[in-house]
Structure formats: C-alpha cells, structure tokens
Amino acid sequence: MKAEQIKELFAQFEAASSELEEIECWSARELQALLGYTKWENFQKVIEKAKDSCRNAGEQTSDHFPDVGKMVTIGSGAEKEIDDILLTRYACYLIAQNGDSRKEEISFAQNYFAVQTRRAELVEQRLLEFERVKAREKLSQTEKQLSGVLYERGVDEKGFGIIRSKGDQALFRMTTQQLKRKMQVPDGRPVADFLPTISIKAKDLAAEMTGLNVQNKNLKGHNPIEKEHVDNSKAVREMLTKRGIVPENLPPAEDVKKVQRKLESDGKKILKDTKKKKK
After folding, report:
1. Contact, 72 vs 82, CB < 8 A?
2. What global pTM score does this model have?
3. Residue 134: is it exposed, middle or buried by C-beta count within 10 angstroms (0-12/13-18/19+)?
4. With 0-12 CB in 10 A as exposed, 13-18 as middle and 19+ as buried, what is 79?
5. 236 with 204: CB under 8 angstroms?
6. Which residues of 157-175 are buried (b: 16+ CB within 10 A; e: fewer)?
7. What is the DSSP string of the chain?
8. What are phi and psi of 219, to 5 degrees?
9. Radius of gyration of the chain from Cα atoms?
10. Which residues pair with 19 in a beta bridge?
11. Which pLDDT tens digit goes with each residue over 146-175?
C-alpha cells in the first residue's frame, strides 16, 4: 500500500469518527463503506463474528456495539430512520479482524484501530509490520502444501529440506548456513523469520511456481523436482536483480515472531484503553 493511499484512508477514517460521552466511536453504516462492503447484509455477518469475538473475550457486546437509529434521505427527498450500530474503537478493531484481510481497506483498518496514537506514520509502520507477518504466514502455508505435493511424488521430509535449501542457494547465491551467518540468525531458527518482506515473498513465489509446475509437468522423484525448484528460484532472482534488488544484500529484519507478539499485544491494549475512557 502506497504512502499516499495510506494518508487518504487515514483522513477518511479520522473524519468518520465522533465522540459520545468522551468515548471515540464510529457509525457501522459509515464503517461499512470505508471497509468496502456494498451490502449491509454482508457487513452484518462480519459484525456478528466480531460480537462473538467480543463475548469470547469476556466483554459485554452492549458496551461496544449499541444499537442506534440513523436518519437517511430517500429518493423523494424525505427522510427515514434505518438501523445502525455505534461502534467503539475496540468493536471496530474486532470487525476489521474478522473481515477479509485481502482487501486493502480491511488491512488498513486492522492496523488503524490497533494504534492508539493518532499519527499516520505509526499506522504506516504498523501496516508494514503486519504485511511482513502475513507474508511469513503465507510462506509457511505454501511450503506446507508443497511438502504434501512432493511427498506424494516420492520426496520425504528430508528430501524436501534439501530441495528448499537448494532453492535458497539459487535465490540468494549462498548456502543456508552462509546466509544464516551473514544475517546472524540464531541456531534452530529458520532464516525466513529474519528476511525482509520482499525476500519472504520471493521465496513464496518460487515455492508456488514449483508446486504448480510439479503437478502440471507431472514430475516425480527428487532430482527432477529439485531442478524445477532451483530453476524457479533462479527465475525469481533474475526478476529481482533486473530491478536492482539483490536479495543477499538486503539487511536482515527484526525477528518476525517478536513482531507478531507486538502486533497481538496491541489488540489487548485497545480494550484496556477503551475501558479507561469509559471510567
């Protein structure tokens, strides 16, 4: 997501907020549009999931999702009242958490409502951290799926590890151990946990390509599958280097597990801060 887009969304979410009895809140009808939902019925389903999350956290939904009415203008110029819900910041956060994170508006909202300081640059930084965590989760899913495909074609867990390592060597022009030493990765930790987002996505793309081609080409056995993965990793590297990005020269990133713990703790802080404002 580009900085200009982040600033635009930030301004829209800020403009939609209001205060009731010194509590920051949003209209569900307005939030529906901000999150890219065209039908109220579809958005209601997300709200119900958010209410379930609220109850599971031991909170009263009436404290965070009170029902209200909203006056709207209809075609004749007359006004009528429609159902609406007043949402606390915590309620908005839970709605965003239960939305489709593939939508840019949802990804932005997940981070916007988790940040207590009203500063766009903090939202932007948190979005970058969020994107990296999601990229790492996606890589794990892709590699798990690829491992299953390869197992059915005669490659065991040890063989998969060798193939993955050969792919890394083709992508980074270094062995896994050399890359770990350069990035100072602790023993027993995967190098992917310390890669920057673009390198994680590069590994993921190569693995996705291998999974697809192994099936399309009906490859079987260690050697042809290893060659396929190495070729795909080389292709991804070539694409990056043509754009001036040399994977092995990128600086290591913060331990992704620490980043994930920090993001998760923000959600708990939202509830505490909401409670403080109510007192």
Report:
1. yes
2. 0.62
3. middle
4. exposed
5. no
6. eebbeebbbbbbbbbbebe
7. --HHHHHHHHHHHHHH-EEETTEEEEEHHHHHHHTT---HHHHHHHHHHHHHHHHHTT--HHHH--EEEEEEE-TTS-EEEEEEEEEEHHHHHHHHHTS-TTSHHHHHHHHHTT--S--HHHHHHHHHHHHHHHHHHHHHHHHHHHHHHHHTTT--HHHHHHHHHHHHHHHHSS-HHHHHHHHTPPTTS-GGGGS-HHHHHHHHHHHHHHHHHHHHTT--SHHHHHHHHHHHHHHHHHHHHHTT--GGGSPP---HHHHHHHHHHHHHHHHHHHHHHH-
8. -75, 145
9. 23
10. 24
11. 999 999 999 999 999 999 999 999 999 999
Non-local (6+) Cβ contacts of 241 within 8 A are none
Q: What is the mean pLDDT of residues 80-88?
A: 83
Tokens describing residue 233: 């990793």
d(CA 35, CA 132): 21
Per-residue pLDDT tens for 91-100?
Answer: 999 999 999 8
CA dist 203 → 124, 220, 230, 255 (Å): 24, 22, 11, 17
- Mind listing the pLDDT tens digit for each residue in 49-74? 999 999 988 888 988 999 887 655 66
Q: Which residues contact 217 (CB under 8 A, 6 or more apart)?
A: 228
Distance between first and last Cα of the chain: 37
